[in-house]
Amino acid sequence: MFSIEQVQAFVITVNTGSFSAAARQLGKAQSVISQHIMNLEIDCNSTLFERTGRYPQLTLAGEKFLPHAQALLNQHQRLLNSASALSDSTPDEMTIALDEGIPFRAVTKVINQLQSSYPNVTLEFLSASSLDIIDLLTQEKPLTGIIFSELNLPTCLDFESTGSISFDLYVAKSHPLAAQVVNNIDSLRLHRQLLIRSRNAQASSFQLQVSPDVLYADNYYLLLELTLQGHGWCLLPEHVAQEALEANELIRLPIEFEKMQWQANVDVLQHQKHSSLTLFKLLRKLLRDIELG
């Protein structure tokens, strides 16, 4: 019967593209990785890699085996995380990381309830882009992230939705786009777009690039300021834009298709290592009932 080490060697080889790269990532000799995969092929009674080229390529059997191998590793990691949480060792500190586009006032409502149950736990609050929060969570820190939904999440993270926030397209009143009605989204390609991305230059799956001319920022308040200065158009949460709208400094983009409002889901994320702890379960429960609007 094959072992977890064999399955891990197989999946990491697929992910990295070579036996040597898999060996470096796992901190083992290449011969160990090759032997693991050879033994796995014997146990499966199938050739999983075609080895005639410079780099190993999955055979048809390997392609069929891969999703099952990935699922097994995910479940194995969840088992390890659950086992480590059996003692329910409550951390001394917990960080609540929030995307700046999500109103902090909604989250503050749960603080008193949380601290009444855990008066000795020190709370820390952090603002960052959703993608940067995901990166922090993968480092297994005692952290709860409140982010805008992303299509691709690491398998080590557990998540649930806690509501949604309305977005719309905005431009400064002084911008040339403010004086015309845009026929369609493609017309915006002619004007600079302002976009969110993380500190390591990852682009959000929610904030799609339309224009070839782009300026980037890592939070929505920077995007707002760039928009107010006339540097381009952008997609903003309605509550972020509200004050500038009321001051008549910002307008919703005049567009022929008037109902362009987007609803962005807001997710609560926790690492599997912590998500089964009572403290983290309580925080999720409290966050389910917050009003984001």
From TrEMBL:
<protein>
    <submittedName>
        <fullName>LysR family transcriptional regulator</fullName>
    </submittedName>
</protein>
<dbReference type="InterPro" id="IPR036390">
    <property type="entry name" value="WH_DNA-bd_sf"/>
</dbReference>
<dbReference type="InterPro" id="IPR005119">
    <property type="entry name" value="LysR_subst-bd"/>
</dbReference>
<comment type="similarity">
    <text>Belongs to the LysR transcriptional regulatory family.</text>
</comment>
<keyword id="KW-0805">Transcription regulation</keyword>
<dbReference type="GO" id="GO:0003700">
    <property type="term" value="F:DNA-binding transcription factor activity"/>
</dbReference>
<dbReference type="InterPro" id="IPR000847">
    <property type="entry name" value="LysR_HTH_N"/>
</dbReference>
<dbReference type="GO" id="GO:0000976">
    <property type="term" value="F:transcription cis-regulatory region binding"/>
</dbReference>
<feature type="domain" description="HTH lysR-type">
    <location>
        <begin position="2"/>
        <end position="59"/>
    </location>
</feature>
<dbReference type="InterPro" id="IPR036388">
    <property type="entry name" value="WH-like_DNA-bd_sf"/>
</dbReference>
<keyword id="KW-0238">DNA-binding</keyword>
<keyword id="KW-0804">Transcription</keyword>
<dbReference type="Pfam" id="PF00126">
    <property type="entry name" value="HTH_1"/>
</dbReference>
<dbReference type="Pfam" id="PF03466">
    <property type="entry name" value="LysR_substrate"/>
</dbReference>
